[in-house]
């Protein structure tokens, strides 16, 4: 490979990398228009999560307008569905 071919290959590589870097913002803008949902449009959102111990985990999940408290791990999983307007505060007061 001659010096002329080496210089030409380096210049072409720089041009191709410049095109890729230059088109990246435009491609990112067009790809976000194609159906990606923002967090406010998502149907299922993990609001909070708390590790109770090395196995069990407490998660607050929002599905549309509902909030669901999930206790997972261990031998059984527990779901608490809260559809009342007062929220989890009333459920905690009613618990033994």
How would you characterize this protein structure?
The chain has 96 residues and is an alpha+beta fold. The chain has two domains: 1-36; 44-85, no CATH class. 39% of the residues lie in helices and 28% in strands. It contains two helices and four strands, in the order H-E-E-E-E-H. The protein has helices spanning 3-32, 88-94, and strands at 44-51, 57-63, 66-72, 78-82. It has a four-stranded antiparallel beta sheet with strand order 1-2-3-4, with no helix packed on it.
Indicate the topology:
Elements: H1 3-32, E1 44-51, E2 57-63, E3 66-72, E4 78-82, H2 88-94
Briefly say what this structure is.
The chain is 39% helix and 28% strand. The protein has 96 residues and is an alpha+beta fold.
List keywords for this structure.
96 residues, alpha+beta, four-stranded antiparallel β-sheet, 2 helices, elongated
**Average pLDDT reading:** 80
Strand and helix order: HEEEEH
Number of helices, where a helix is a run of at least 4 consecutive DSSP H or I residues: 2
Helix content: 25-40%
Q: Indicate how many domains the architecture comprises.
A: 2
The coarse silhouette is elongated
What gap, in angstroms, lies between the N and C termini? 83 Å
User: Approximately how much beta-strand content do the residues carry?
Assistant: 25-35%
With strands numbered from the N-terminus, the spatial order across the biggest sheet is 1-2-3-4
Secondary-structure content class = alpha+beta
Give unreliable regions as ranges: none
**How much is the radius of gyration in Å?**
26 Å
- What quaternary form is this? single chain
Largest sheet: 4 strands, antiparallel
What is the tally of beta strands? 4
